[in-house]
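Hi! If you just cloned this repository, the fastest way to understand the data is to look at a raw example. We've pasted two of them here, unedited. The first protein comes first, obviously.
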Amino acid sequence: MFASRRDPWVVAVLLFLGYGSLSLTRHFAMRSTGYDLGIFEEAVRAYSRFRPPVAEIKAPGFNLLGDHFHPIIALIAPLYRLAPGAGTLLLVQAALFAVSAVPVTRLAADRLGRRAGLCVGLAYGLSWGIQQAVDFDFHEIAFAVPLIARSVELLARRRWAPAACWALPLLLVKEDQALTVAAIGAYIYGRGSRRIGGALFAGAIAFGALVVEVVIPAFSPGHDYRYAAAARGDGNAFHLFMPLETKGWTLLALFVPTLFLALRSPLVLLGAPCLAARFWATVPNYWGTHFHYSAVLMPIVFIAAIDGMRGVRPVPRSVERVAPHAMLATALAITLLAPQPLRGLLDPATWQAPEHFRAAAAALARVPDGADVAAANRLAPQLTDRCRVFRLLPSPPWPRPEWAVAMDGTKPFGPLSASDADTLRRLPEAGYAPVAQGGGVVLYRLRH
């Protein structure tokens, strides 16, 4: 009995080691970015000093609550105060994603047996939606994933009040999570307690509207919700399904890891509002399988698959015995053959200190602590723990900082984009002179 209770946490520890290793090696190879790791680090750093979450990379003096509503990231501030640096955010995110496997593994073990629970938990941890999120810096949705996993697990167990309680903190993660909370409320209303479900649904809609219409505009420089136009779509209902090749592939990719068993449970409908909002938006990045947008759907899909195997219409015993192992095999195949980011941990080069990093770090070390510096996107998160960092642009919209760091177009960063090349060309014209160079990085200082 003790071993079976320990299993979900063993799975979580293994996943944390994998996620943390992937995130840190990526950061130390200077593959992390100012958008978004640097932005979130500036906000958390401000919280740790009891200041508003201003992210200078976003724009000078920009309060990040005017972009998205995510006060929950302030919970990282005490840890950041003890260990300042981007690595703290990355490890917190790795821990949150890893812990989200506990409810999934536990429910699978209770319903299907210990071995099946381990298989399903590991398959969930290797799911492409989680891996893609780990591979793309840090985002506030890391807090949403374990909360959703726990709430949906409780829904599967028909424990309505605790499920609602675990869903409520999602409202502090990001404004779009009001849709998920409303969906959970609707599910409770239809399947269990009308009083709890109705209150949760109404509260989520009211709170979401308040945040989008009042709170975010109050902090926004333009006093508006800047994503409103994208969220409204183009007014054409067919836009929800087009382009079919991109959105259809995303739908297929969502259900393949669970062998389509998630479709047997009504719990899968909890992901519909979030997915519909993504597909309705006019931003192509929302439609596909990259970035962090699908991470919040993974616990819903996997718990729905567990419920689908042992729900109202149980699958045949032969399917129940084979499915968990097949799910793990599918996750491994996708990871190794697709390939997915965790496959990189099998490459010995991933674990070697990048040669360019030492030279680049030496150049960046010339920037004094507490200095104002304009930094290229790939270089910003290397400085946000000790400097006031702005986004390096061709025409700075702020008073020129004393320091600027740019990429020079050589390895390991490769050829510069047209915008970065233009920025590099304009730096001397703006009064900057190079003072150090190495590892593909050039450090400039303003001539006085």
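Ok, and the second one:
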Amino acid sequence: MAPRVYFGFDYKDVKSFRANVVRNHDITKETGEAGFFHASIWEDAELHGSIAVKNLIDRSLENTTVTCILIGSTTWRRRWVRYEILKSYDTGNRLLGVHINGVKDKNQKVFGQGRNPFEYLGFVISHDGKTLIYYEHDGESWKTYQDLPPKSTGFETKWCSRGYKLSAWVPCYDWMSQDGYKNFATWVESAK
């Protein structure tokens, strides 16, 4: 069965057309089903508040197995991208990131590589191994993540009382320099 991919991204990158290059490459090349929603649905959910946005993301993640974060200039600090990442981890989706700033935008411009959002998200396992608490870095310091509650878990004590950044195991690729059109299906298959 082909993996079902959920795409998370900053909507500024859709307006510039860079995110669409990755999202829509599947139209001409089979790499599995892709899950994403149109900007108008997103905007409607935002009008109804944070619970509506979370519900939209939660429903969209259902029946997906991999979450691909399309990384632009400001993706790392976007609240709802952070939620998509941590909710994906929380529900067991495998994760990967794809840098898209090398893709020409609608004005034929490219940009420097954006920060890796997985560097700014992580968790701490309680001393008894029973609770996983999510954290986020705002560019200055680590803080408890507020959009997801702590998760009950059963980690071995050797993993306890320690913090972990998602970047320690989530792979990131560059769409242009690593030939994403050709390699995306392989990246999805090897996501962790």
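That's it. A detail worth noticing about the second one: The CA atoms of residues 101 and 111 lie 5 Å apart.
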